Every structure is written in structure tokens, then in C-alpha cells.
Amino acid sequence: MAAKVFKNFIGGEWVESRSGQTYENLNPADTRDVIGVFQRSDKRDVDDAVSAARQAFERWRLVPAPKRAEIIYRAGEILLERKEEYARLMTREMGKVLRETRGDVQEAVDTAYYMAGEGRRQFGVTVPSELPNKFAMAVRMPIGVCGMIAPWNFPMAIPSWKLLPALVCGNTCVIKPAEDTPLSTLNLLKALTDAGSPDPARWDALWVRRLRAVSSRALWKWAGRTPSLSSTMQTWIWRSKAFYGARSVRPDSVVLRPVGSSYKKAFIASLQTA
């Protein structure tokens, strides 16, 4: 049976990469098992995703924060319902034992519940004014499109840490999941889209502008023009940030030692249990 082909999610639509190229995502414990066929995206796909996210931002930022939070909460409920299914797919995709992958999905569930609460806690501040007849206050506002690069080792938990806070605060996102684990991030996206508004014409471009296997360097080049970039990365990407987008890197970025992906997956797969 032919492997399922997964497309990029840009502007509310599933689309092929501009290059027309794809790659196979293989089970590290049995390379005869093809998890799926994913798009090999390039700079043009990044540009398309950024453009769609900017258009979506003009609508999403106007949705009241508590309403945004309700969608995030529903996504958490959906993830909880699908926890076993997604955990087993994650084990098949990247080799962590089931106890670990169940925990990975649970972290995304917990993050969704926590960030749903933040929808009603985006407090501003008031201060006494030094001028008569003046009122001074600060109001929290979304900053725009957020770029995100996720790693392979926690393929649902870490994307949830990046995506859900940004979304509940009214931002839109462009995320590049790890090339080794695109399906797990896709499953997080499914939960978000399934939790969305019943009016698709209004909400079709609000969620994750997914890019699989797109050049991280392309996203870094774009990062210099975006308000925020969150990346859990290898050291070669960390070094490149100084040239491509240092001013927009968020302080939560994490540096990982560069280890070959095949080695990493094979090592983890050796611990795989049913």
C-alpha cells in the first residue's frame, strides 16, 4: 500500500511545496515502514506561509483573548482523547518508548490547559500619572507573526510550548518541525484545527503555517523581519543567527549539540518497547 502523502498547511489550505519535491519519513526501528511522504519545502514556501500568517494576524488579533483561550482549551481536550493514538504514532516515528511518548503528548495537553487560563490573565497595569487629569495604563497587545523551529526529541511538547502561548496572545505562527518528526507536529495541528471555529471562512488562516523540511536558514533569513523567533536548535543554526536574525531571537532559545539525526533516532529506537 502506498504511503500517505502529507502537504503543507498554508493559509487554511493543504498545498504541495513549490519545489514539487518530497521525502519519506521512516520508522527508525524498521526502515521498511514508511510513516508518510512529506513536502520538501524551500524559501518560496516560507514566503507564502509568512504572507498568509500576516493576513491572518489582522483578524486573529481582534478575537477576544478569552475566546482564543476557549479554542486552545478544546485543543487540549482533543489531545487528551487522542493521547494513546498520537503516542503510538510518535513511537513509530522517532523511537521513544511509549511511556515517554505518552508523556510528550500529556505535556502538550497540560500546556493547552495552562495557556487557556492565560486567556483571562493578560492583565495590564495602571500607574499614577504625574500630570493632572491624566490616566496612565499599559495594555498587552499581540506582536504579529512568530517564526518557530522545533526539534526532533519532543516533537509535540516543544511545539506546544512555542505555539500555544503565541496563539492565545493573539499572534499567528510559522513553524518548521524537525525533518525527522513532522507527523507529531502535524497531529498537534490537527487538534488545533479540529478545535477551531465552526465558521471556516473566518478562521481558515489562523493556525499553524506548517512547513516540513524547509531550510532552517530560509526561516532565519526571514526572522530578521519578524517580531519574534523561537528556536530549539543545533549549534550551526545558533551561529547563523548572528547574521540572519539575531535581533528577533527570543531568549527561550535552547542550543543542542549537533548530532547526526540517524544516530539519534537509532540510539533511541534501540530502547523501543511495545
Blueprint of the fold:
Blueprint: E1 8-10, E2 13-15, E3 22-27, E4 30-39, H1 43-60, H2 65-81, H3 83-94, H4 98-118, E5 125-127, E6 136-138, E7 145-149, H5 157-168, E8 172-176, H6 182-194, H7 200-203, E9 209-210, H8 216-223, E10 228-234, H9 235-244, E11 254-256, H10 261-269
Tag the structure with descriptive keywords.
45% helix, 5-stranded parallel beta sheet, alpha/beta, globular
Separation of termini? Answer: 24 Å
Order of helices and strands: EEEEHHHHEEEHEHHEHEHEH
Give the low-pLDDT segments.
Answer: 198-215, 234-274
Rg estimate, integer Å:
19 Å
Give the proportion of residues in helices.
40-55%
CATH class call: Alpha Beta
Query: CATH superfamily, called what?
Result: Aldehyde Dehydrogenase, Chain A, domain 1
- Category by helix and strand content: alpha/beta
Mean pLDDT across residues: 78
The largest pleated sheet is described as: 5 strands, parallel
Number of domains: 1
**Strand portion:** 15-25%
Strand order of the largest sheet: 9-8-7-10-11
Shape: globular
Tally of DSSP β-strands: 11
- Report the CATH architecture: 3-Layer(aba) Sandwich
How many separate helices? Answer: 10
In short:
With 274 residues, the protein is of the alpha/beta class. The protein is built from ten helices and eleven strands. The protein has a five-stranded parallel beta sheet with strand order 9-8-7-10-11, with helices on both faces. It has a two-stranded antiparallel sheet with strand order 1-2.
